[in-house]
Specification:
Strand content: under 5%
Shape: rod-shaped
Low-confidence stretches: none
Order of helices and strands: HHHHH
CATH superfamily: Ribosomal protein L20, C-terminal domain
Helix content: over 70%
Largest sheet: none
Number of helices: 5
CATH architecture: Orthogonal Bundle
Number of domains: 1
Oligomer: single chain
Length: 114
Amino acid sequence: MPRSVNKVAARHKRKKLLKLTKGYFGARKNVYTVAKNTREKGLTYAYRDRRNKKREFRKLWIQRINAASRQYGMNYSQFIGKLNDKNIQINRKVLADLAMNHPDAFKAIVESVK
């Protein structure tokens, strides 16, 4: 009895993966085994960088808050410490946005904690 293989399903599986790697350079887009390895590596990077993105944004917010609070004679750690002492619950994302886009509102917050 001849060996039975499901050629339709196998081709569908390969085409699906090659469609996902469309736009990659060289053999990464059209050679199945290379594309499969590239896709796996890309998913690994995506998983890692979803976590790294949160770290990067927090670092950016802290830099912006630090720069804005230094204009009013206070560094970042002093500013955050005084916010906590006064029980003002504003997260870093909002503070950074105020510092960048609404300097008057940020100045009011700084004046309230001084």
